Amino acid sequence: MGGGGNDSYGKKAFKRSKSHFTDRITADGRDGWPVAAGRYRLVVSRACPWASRAVISRRLLGLEDALPMAIADPIQDDRSWRFTLDPGGRDPVLGIRHLSEAYDKRETGYPGGVSVPAIVDVPSGQLVTNDYQQLTLDLATEWSALHREGAPDLYPQALRDEIDAVMAEVYEDVNNGVYRAGFATDQEEYEGACAGVFRRLDMLSARLEGQRYLVGDTITEADIRLFTTLVRFDAAYHGHFKCNRWKLTENPILWAYARDLYQTPGFGDTVDFDHIKRHYYQVHSGINPTRIVPLGPELDGWLAPHFRQELGGRPFGDGTPPGPVPAGEEVPAQGRP
After folding, report:
1. Which of 11, 51, 121, 148 could disulfide-link 116, Cβ–Cβ 3.0 to 4.6 Å?
2. Residue 18 pLDDT more than 70?
3. Closest by alpha carbon to 41, among 65, 76, 73, 77?
4. Catalytic residue chosen out of the listed positions 48, 132, 237, 262
5. Which letter does DSSP use for residue 335 in this model?
6. Which residue in 132, 179, 213, 280 is the catalytic one?
7. Is 48 a catalytic residue?
């Protein structure tokens, strides 16, 4: 979304801002930003589905030490994402209170809002990129020299055309579709977006009925991008965004698929349902003016057996699961089932 303040949500036409800062961090440094362990800081919110892609990819690939992470407060103010979870309300590495300060160091008066995920250059304190579409693809490919031993190939060369096609459909109708429904300003706009969400979910359900993952027999970037919307569906999009034809828990195939991924190391251990719910219901005051956060849904079902292993598939291909969550990055108890 662009700017306008939290109370503007649902009161003006929805348009997702394109990433303004599209520099890439690459192995050869062709944009002036070479891959280097410890040079950059990944700024995320556990509430944000776009940022959660990067959190999951980073963990699956074992980049925790090479790319340290800052976690913003899920309740952003009209200025931007805040570091109020850290002592003194400042990020301990960048020394800033708001992510907007890193944006301003890069360019004053930039168009669009302050978004996560964002990668900041630690030595200069300036933003490098907020290109959420490209960022995780580069983590999977350009950062390969720093991947952990046994890291999965999340963007295999032979399957990229199919992965790209699936991701494009998921983005348009599901990832972004829920927002177009939730922030619609008239009935026709809402109904078109909501119908598109469920039409695509029905198609994805049919695709996943006979195969464990979206493309091939291993987890790929396509699964990460669908998961980050599904895991928020019943907690936020069903009620808050009025995508309520059915709940995720009422679709046997997608619910089992989502549980399978949630229970896979690197997925569920990055999800904070408390951050998710407080962000959506308290930040989007334009569509939830009371800012009341609902008590539900119950979360125990995320740990129930899914039986998707009966379809075969190898979650990490020839690789291995990631190790334990690094100290200091664990999801607090109130955010877990």
Report:
1. 51
2. no
3. 65
4. 48
5. G
6. 179
7. yes
